[in-house]
Amino acid sequence: MPGSKVARPRLDQPFVTGAIDTPTGQVPVVSSVLSWADRVGGYKVRWGFGRYTYTVDPGLYAVGTPDDRSPVLVSANYKLSFDALRRELGRRSAWILALDTRGINVWCAAGKGTFGTDEVVHRVESADLPLTVSHNVIVLPQLGAPGVNGPEVRRRTRFRVVYGPVRAADVPAFLDAGMRATAEMRRVRFTLRDRLVLVPVEIANELKIAAIATTVVALVGGVGSGWYSLARAADRGLIGLAAVLGALFAGTVLTPLLLPWVPGRMFSTKGAIVGAVAAAALFAKAALSGVASSPVTLAAAALFVIAGSSFGAMNFTGTSTYTSLHGVEKEMRLVMPWQALGAAVASVLWIAGGWY
Q1: Which pLDDT does position 287 carry in this prediction?
Q2: Which of 43, 67, 84, 121 has the fewest CB atoms in 10 Å of its CB?
Q3: What is the extent of the structural domain holding 304?
Q4: By the 8 A CB rule, do 252 and 202 touch?
Q5: Are 66 and 98 within one domain?
């Protein structure tokens, strides 16, 4: 029976505004205008709240009043990706086929395999797409190409895969041009806005680690001559707090901000360079302010800033279209032992700083 292979998207999802009848049953209708709840949800996810559950039901959706000749645009079921596409459609009518990417965006899902050939085929079949549209074309986002074998999709479904532009904002112009993309539409960019929009979630992810690290360095900071001193813990704790915040700021804010201008190819290297500059600036200010501390303690704090900043910056490797999954794994294998060594040496120096 058509439409009975898998459950269709629920009509009671908060962003669904109605339903449209098709030969295979009702399809949820979604607006191209994002509601206040959609925008609040997006802001929350950017700060790490509900990041892995911000999804839509996979399956077929309608924008406007599409018919059998309307284009079929494929997206991920990560709601930020889904919302970005429907928002750009404006007054157009189209079908959106949301793949089950486990709540992961198109680019990352293509690398992980959830935005892949089998899932495209499965969703085309489960949505009974041949009975809904009279053409045989589905439009996939360009960033999903690494995970999809177009000829294999056509062999198994008879639907021809056409790759749309990199950015959802270019979809209307792409459709108006007869599904032909310009060179500019194909160009992958990682602009200042693209980089900074990732900062909040990275900060949120590292705040817990930063809080634990600050507590540990403050407590350990009291160890030294006479075994333990609360006054020493308070004094050195301030230096430790400055180091933790410096590492967090340098790795998750300054590095993405300055990314094109910082030397080096690997993100971890760029983070280490920015961390070194940040450490120098922090402790130059401390010296000018008359903050007294041992060279060993300052060396430990500086090394922690560099290692922490390098680690924080490396997180952006997996969110940038500059790198491949293989490149991310290679960088992690190469750099993480050095980051761990830097943190270990910083810990030893921090403990030793209580006596020297």
Answers
A1: 64
A2: 43
A3: 192-352
A4: yes
A5: yes
